Amino acid sequence: MTSYSLTYILLTYNQRDTVKAAVESALVQDVQPMEIVISDDCSSDGTFAEVEAAVSGYSGPHRVILNRNPENLGLAGNLAKVHDLSTGDIIVAAAGDDLSEPQRCQRILETFVEEAPLLLCSYAKVIDPAGQPVPGNFKTALFYGDEWSLKQVARSKSLYIGATGAWHRSLYEDFGQMAPGSYEDLVLGFRAALQGRVSLIKEELVSYRLGFGITSSDAYLADVTSYKKRRLSGFLAQKAVMHQREADAREFGLSDKSPVMRVLKKEQRKADLGISYYQDTPSAFAAKALRHPLLMLVIARAERRRARKFLVNCKPVG
């Protein structure tokens, strides 16, 4: 039987009000002694002081490592930092506004032993900023379905709820550090799918908080300006993700003629047009879209429809 060591990584940034509970949910994990690496990305609101207070006096079985970046590195940079600081075979991801059930790491360890994935995810309970349940179906991401193709993965912007993820450290090290602006669930999920080694635990092992930081949904934005800023940010992240996926596909050995690579190129063009839609004047957007008029229509119609829905359904913060 294969044995694994575990590292629980907790990435924090300006999450003072929620981070104490997030740290406590790491410390009470009912699993073999493991490493817990908590890395704060130069928060400005006292988050790291809350982290230090939460671990003060801890005498349990797990080894705790604290880090505070002297400058903000962004998600990709902070993730690279914790990989450098960690030693575990399995990396269990967590954020400073989410909570792990006490059995989460044990269930992850059991699944790695039984199925030997490179990446696994689980279901999540979705809660609002106040900790109350959010109604809705949150099992629509691609990896939560029974079947998916590599082309679908290449196109997808929702593979799994990132707060539920865990991966073998080789998945990160074999391909290298992620590009700035990209997200680990969309990059690491694609890397694991390239090799056909993705597993799902059909249990709610994480309480995922919607409405804080990068997890905010459109419904929690206060005004149209905030909405447009978020949409632009989303297209910039999409571009970074698709560029990283293309680099990973090449590293894996896919050629420019492969169907997957063609999908990635198209998604990059769509991201470029989305950026232009929110960043440029209408005439500049039209000029850039001349080479891809059908994609231009798709982007413009989709964004107008989404904006109308936001105006109808948005609820002010507070």
UniProtKB/TrEMBL annotation:
Domain Glycosyltransferase 2-like: residue ranges = 9-130
Know the name of this protein? Glycosyltransferase 2-like domain-containing protein
Natural source organism: Tritonibacter mobilis F1926
Q: Name one Pfam family in it.
A: Glycos_transf_2
Query: Which branch of life, at top level?
Result: Bacteria
> Does the keyword field hold Membrane?
no
Keywords tagged on the record: Plasmid
**Tagged with keyword tRNA processing:** no
User: What SUPFAM superfamilies does the record tag this protein with?
Assistant: Nucleotide-diphospho-sugar transferases
